[in-house]
Amino acid sequence: MDTPTVENPDPAGASRGATSVVGTPGGEPPAFEGLAAAVLDGRGTVVGWTCTAQELTGFSADEVHGRPVQELVADLPHGPRKVTLWPTTGRIRLRHQRGNTIDVTFRTTQVKGSADFLVLAAPTPHVADRRHGAALLRALSAQNRITIALHDTDLTTVQTNAMPDTPDGRPIQPGTRLGDVLCAEDAESIEAVLRQVLETGVPVIHRNQRVSWRHRPARRHALSLSAFPLEDARGRPAGVAALYIDDTDQLRARRQLDLAHEVAERVGGSLDVVRTGQDLADVLVPTFGDLAAVDLAHAVFDGDEPAGRLGGGDLHLRIAALAPTTAAWPPGIQRGNLVPPLSDHPLLLRFRRGETVVYGRDDYTALIGGPPCVEEFLPQDTHTVMVAPLHAHGLTLGAIVIWRTGPSEPFTEDEVDLMRQIASRGALAIDNARRYTREHRAAMALQQRLLPPATTDTPAAETAGVYLPTGRGAGTSGDWYDAIRLPSLRLALVAGDVIGHGIPASATMGRLRAAIQTLADLELEPDELLTRIADLVQRLAAEAPPGDHDVMGATCLYAVYDPVTRRCAMASAGHPPPVLVRPDGTTEAVDVSPGPPLAVCGMPYETTVIDLEPGSVLALYTDGLVHRGAHDSDDGLKRLTDALATSCRPDRALGETGRALLGDLVGEAPRDDVTLLLARTRAVPAEDTAHWRIPADPAAVCDARAWATRQLTAWGLDDLLFTTELIVSELVTNAIRHGRPPAELRLIRHGVLICEVTDSNTAQPRLRRARTTDEGGRGLFLVARLAERWGCRHGRNHKTIWSEQPLPSSR
Known about the structure:
This protein has 811 residues and is α+β, with helices and mostly antiparallel strands. It is built from 18 helices and 32 strands. The strands form six sheets. Strands 16-17-27-26-22-23 form a six-stranded antiparallel beta sheet, covered by helices on one side. Strands 18, 19, 20, 21, 24 and 25 form a six-stranded mixed beta sheet that branches. It has a five-stranded antiparallel beta sheet with strand order 2-1-5-4-3. The longest helix has 38 residues, at 413-450. The protein is elongated.
């Protein structure tokens, strides 16, 4: 028998069925489903022909019976020959009744006990499709993350490659229902989806499902479900195919990445050590663990550096934060508690070396002191504990402790690596907060030391100052207030605000306050004093580092109150106006002409003078009290004025009033430092003062002594007659000899005896030591020796020389 020319493909291919037909040019092939079969005798003659062979070629059994098979083959290269050997498999091209050809893959086998051969054939594209489909199915079935399940119309599993994580490792058997392997709730959810696909014929693609195996309900798997309807040859529903892709690892990795991002966003926003620790604990629960604690070294709470290395079982830690705070924590694990000394354990040595350590329940029980300490220090149902050191800049600041309880999974190595990263970032945030705490504490200590006493009580007024530092991360802002005693019972009131924050601002504030006190002793007018302070600020700016020139400056309000005249003179260098509360309770903002801030030189300041009734309250403040927004100063001033009208009462202490105002007007974390100075004015009674106009006549010296003697006698100050006569004589003599009229002598009795001589010559008198042969020059020297203190102050067109003597009762 001649052998047809064939190609030898993969022998396994011919045994697989076909799903489609592809013809060659010359006509459309008929639709064909199945496997064609023919029987050939030993000579190659067709002796048997099936219906499927007729469907494939178009020839009936009568048309081919008895004909050589070579007549049906289209591409024999050597013409018809006797077939002597049939290959077991191959590819040939068959003729179709309509004239075209069909590429088929065949397989032959000899009929047992006969010389006949059985030939099975199918279109080659169908065979290739089946072969590729089978290969694809095998490849999908071999994937660990991909599960394929075929279900019939009642959703019973017909075939699947599912391998649940069971102790025996057996695959799921056909005939199993989803409820037999999954938790009931999860099985019902998936069956509802499959039933919908079966009824509607609409596939479901990538539906997210969370499932748990019945034998292991604590472990949740994240699946992506795709389901497709199956049909039989007649197009009727035959079942549903489900494709499950396990995204658990990807979901876990995504969650870990999200957790790392959340730590970066939420941890470190606060510069408070405890708040930062709480933020860190809150981020970790429940995403990473069921319970979390952040323990910090004792020194960290105060901003100091902890010990460089941890040694022994006592780690010197205190619990700073717990999450969730509503959990039923054991009595030994509470915020503020000390972490007890730990027992010697190999895993503790790893922690001291800076490693993140995972403890099982038994190891952790041994670490905290054994079974007697379980109820005190081990949360209920704990099975795994992770402890990560907070290590930054060579310092161990504390530790993060994470507990997993109940049905949750133990920690994995990936989670240990993630915790190392979280602990490293958390340690840096806590160290930043610690450093800020240290600097803020130093700045606050400096600021508080540089501020005056909170209250003063002088003949001119009683005062109460309140200072509230900013609640934001910048630290102190250099705001200050001051109440400076001046000669002749007068009182200077100051409120100022330095540009900048922190220790540099506090240092600048201290220098300005000292300068103002020094200039105040010179008894300059308010506008003159601010001019000189502005010059000082310019010099400070010139001395500052190049990058700080533009941030050196301040605003200031300087006021001087005289209880004798009951007048207050004030000037402003870019500072908010004071608020006046009259004895009758009415309030108003004083109309002060504001000059430029102290950083600007060459611009004049203007002094404003107002009359104050005894019992009036003058409120000086910084802008942190009235500014809540960029354009809120007018509304803030009105709020302050209204609040003063309500809170400032004669029967209420000024300190209490100041604290109440801050509570009403300022939030818990003010944007800027807040300073408030309240001064309730007093007045010297008219009967305690006496005036005498000095004539421009040298003989008036004798009259001045006589007038002073009569006044002191009337006041009952006979003990001061001799010294006062000498002081009056010298001062009046100088006024007549060196001054210009008009001149005036004034005596004030109020705790001390004050003698003032005013004339219209603004020249500064100088104290000098006269030589033995000098006939004059001893007047001021005598005054300095007789009086407790003396001085000179200048007005716009006059000067006043004054002296003070203690009253006999006050010595």
